[in-house]
Amino acid sequence: MREWLRIAWEPAVVRRAVRIALVVGALLILINHGDALLHGAVSPLRLGQMALTVLVPYCVSTFSSVSVLRELRRASPELLSDPKSPPEHGR
Fold this sequence. Notes:
Distance between the termini: 24 Å
Largest sheet: none
Oligomer: single chain
Number of domains: 1
Shape: elongated
Number of helices: 4
């Protein structure tokens, strides 16, 4: 679990997830809440729903990125390790 969280907080993973969350989240908000936005019917509950609408693609992107990076690093640890982590000795 620690490895998963460490990878999830890597700057490249976070940047990718934020970009995807903003684009996909904005599209989903327009699709699901566009009417309410146009009519000014935005309640605190709806704002919470909009926040979740953005959070879901962030989580999906992060999960996907971490899964792929873990697999690739297990296959080729010397090529795909986190560039900021200290080198491992004894290899």
